[in-house]
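Sharing a chain and its predicted structure for anyone who wants a worked example. Both blocks are below, sequence first, tokens second.
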Amino acid sequence: SLKLSPPSISDRECEFTATVTVTNTGTVVGSEIVQLYVNLPSTPEYTHPVLQLRAFAKVKGLNPGEAKEVVMPLDKYAVSYWDDKLDSWVVVKGIYGVQIGVSSENIVLQDTVELKKGFEWNGL
């Protein structure tokens, strides 16, 4: 399962979390790497890649039938792109796609999160 917290946006910062439940459906102890991809909203100026890897987590040593929740924090780095015309990083308001998979070719869960406010920022 995938749960996204409501985003918190304040003073050029953005935070939200993605919580995923991973279950070992096999018959032996297993591990998995959970990958989180973000799809940025379209803008008239830029076309963004459909899947951008923004977080990952390794789940180790799950016994058969065991489930574990994985929490992946996301921030402004996960939803920003560089705008060379503005010479700054940009977060646009809009609907962002969030996909979970074991690879970019094996997406198993997806949801959306809405950022109701955008902003520009510079620096690290």
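Comments welcome. The radius of gyration is 16 Å.
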